[in-house]
Automatic annotation (TrEMBL):
Main location (coarse class): nucleus
GO cellular component terms given for this protein: cytosol; nucleus
Keyword Hydrolase recorded: no
Localization (cell): Nucleus
GO-annotated molecular function: DNA-binding transcription factor activity, RNA polymerase II-specific; RNA polymerase II cis-regulatory region sequence-specific DNA binding
Region ranges (Disordered): 363-391
GO annotation (BP), single: non-canonical NF-kappaB signal transduction
Domain (RHD) ranges: 78-256
Taxonomic source organism: Pyxicephalus adspersus (African bullfrog)
CDD domains named in the record: IPT_NFkappaB
Protein's name in the database: RHD domain-containing protein
Domain of life: Eukaryota
UniProt-listed Gene3D superfamilies: Immunoglobulins, Rel homology domain (RHD), DNA-binding domain
Record keywords, A-Z: Activator, Biological rhythms, Nucleus, Transcription, Transcription regulation
Length: 502
DNA sequence: TAAAGCGTCCC
DNA sequence: CGGGACGCTTT
């Protein structure tokens, strides 16, 4: 998954400051440098301090983006030997491994890798046709400027001392290289200093950034791959290429960078007015850095919950936000996802269906019976008030769409937990069986609704057009009563809150 | 002080 | 390679 707001390519269109940067770099008087300088692969012109040059790059199209563009080849038009990243490393999904976890630390995959087509991080040398040998090295650096060497180590094929080194022969057509079996071995906190010192001692410091006084402040959950290359010209001059930075690679195990995932939800249907309690089981999250979004093509809203509603990082109890149109007449399918606040990363969506209000739905004009009565609290001991809470809870989907129990032809009351808990003293079904509910739904709804629901069910995309969405938004703005507005004032209805907190 | 979170390691 | 135990650290 790419970061939000990032285009598919790092190439910047039309004229851009990167051209200027390229010019600076291409004019780098590298041949005037001594051999000892070359050990550290300096690339930046002496008269341009590293920081200021990098900032120049940063302030254009991608605010907040890494200061050094890693793949600027499409904008490159000189004949200088160049190294580009053809396939970025996959940013998420690989776990950094401790040394004690064994020799193999897994393998960094390519960004476009998937189950069917496995790819690997790949570099290409350009304008190197006549060169016999190009030495390429890869090391790990900090995610952010000034890209100090990272204590973690690259391990695997062609790796030693935490870096990976290979030799390419462009004059034999060998200009491209896939890095297979590259793993990231993480160090323990107490090993940060010794690891960095060892790296520096070997002359590994692509940006001449040295060691940070507060080296323990390094972010151990993210690295960038840093590619550098050198070759010898016939006149025995040593020439350098790079350094070129990859996109950041995040540790899968760390909760502040890992992929977000909704494992299960106890409810997939709910009232369009919102306010219903839903439990989400998820992979570890950080309670102060997580929100749950409900959204469709044209609308999104935050679910309502507090940090106390996040249970041990793996479950969230939330209240559904109201749908933007309280007067829907058909069930409205939306998506629910987790979103990390700090980086905006979202999980895959899970479908949630908003149901029309009573009376608004086609064919539903009769009143539902009351769901509880005072007598029912006397049914038996309920020390934890589980049953009584259950009765107070908003009706589940099937309760909601059923206008009058027992009156619908073709309804199978024996399936799942659609029986009213009050009617069955032994009732103790756990989470709702949504499959059953869905089946029942399809036995009840009109053919048109069924068709729509079925279609969108398989596409996984809400069956909306822009016109629908616009109409709904307008409808919504006209539909709120004063009381409803007060009731929902803490929830968002529109895109306005897209990047904001809740 | 207890609970939650994190880092590390084991299976 | 993923799940999770568990002890140490932080809140």
């Amino acid at each position: 998954m790419r970061e939000p707001g990032r285009a598919g390519s790092n190439c910047i269109l039309s004229h851009d400051p990167l051209d200027d940067v390229m010019e600076l770099i291409n004019n780098d008087p590298v041949s005037t440098r001594s051999e000892s300088d070359m050990v550290n692969f300096p690339t930046l012109p002496d008269h341009v301090p590293c920081g200021s040059l990098l900032e120049t790059v940063t302030i254009n199209q991608f605010p907040g983006e890494p200061a050094v563009s890693s793949t600027w080849e499409p904008c490159h038009n000189s004949a200088q030997p160049t190294l580009i990243i053809k396939e970025q490393p996959k940013q998420r999904g690989m776990r950094f491994r401790y040394q004690c976890e064994g020799r193999s630390a897994g393998s960094i995959l390519g960004e476009s890798s998937n189950d069917q087509n496995k790819t690997l991080p790949t570099i290409v040398l350009l304008n190197c046709e006549g060169i016999r040998e190009v030495h390429v090295s890869v090391c790990l650096v900090w995610k952010d400027h000034p890209y100090r060497v990272h204590p973690h180590a690259l391990v695997g094929k062609d790796c030693h001392d935490g870096i990976c080194e290979i030799i390419l022969h462009p004059n034999e057509g060998e200009t491209e290289h896939c890095f297979s079996n590259l793993g990231i071995q993480c160090v323990r906190k107490k090993e940060i200093e010794s690891s960095v010192k060892a790296r520096l001692k070997l002359g590994i410091d692509p940006f001449n950034a040295g060691m940070w006084r507060h080296h323990e402040e390094v972010d151990l959950n993210v690295v960038r791959l840093c590619f550098q290359a050198w070759y010898i010209l016939p006149a025995t001059q040593r020439m350098t290429i790079g350094p070129v930075l990859s996109e950041p690679v995040y540790d899968k195990k760390s909760t502040n960078t890992s992929e977000l995932k909704i494992c299960r939800m106890n409810k997939e249907y709910g009232r369009c007015e919102g306010g219903e309690e839903v439990y989400i089981l998820c992979d570890k999250v950080q309670k102060e850095d997580i929100k749950v979004m409900f959204f469709d093509n044209s609308w999104e809203a935050c679910a309502n919950f507090s940090q106390a509603d996040v249970h041990r990082q793996i479950a969230i109890v939330l209240k559904t936000p109201p749908y933007h149109d309280l007067h829907i007449r058909d069930p409205a399918r939306v998506q629910v996802c987790l979103q990390r606040i700090t980086d905006g990363i979202r999980s895959d969506g899970v479908t949630f269906t908003y149901l029309p209000r009573e009376g608004d739905s086609y064919g539903l004009q009769r009143k539902r019976p009351r769901m509880s009565s005072p007598l029912e609290d006397l049914v038996g001991p309920d020390p934890h008030r589980i049953e009584s809470r259950r009765r107070q809870a908003r009706p589940s989907y099937i309760e909601y769409i059923t206008p009058d129990y027992g009156s619908l032809p073709g309804m199978d009351y024996s399936v799942g937990n659609v029986m009213d808990p009050q009617l069955s003293p032994d009732y103790s079904a756990p989470l709702e069986d949504t499959t059953s509910n869905l089946e029942i739904f399809h036995t009840w709804i009109t053919p048109e609704l069924e068709e729509q629901a079925a279609a969108s069910h398989f596409e996984g995309i809400p069956p909306y057009t822009d016109e629908d969405a616009t109409a709904s938004l307008v409808g919504h703005s006209l539909s709120l009563t004063g009381e409803q507005e007060r009731m929902y004032s803490d929830c968002s209805y529109t895109d306005d809150m897209r990047m904001g907190g809740c």
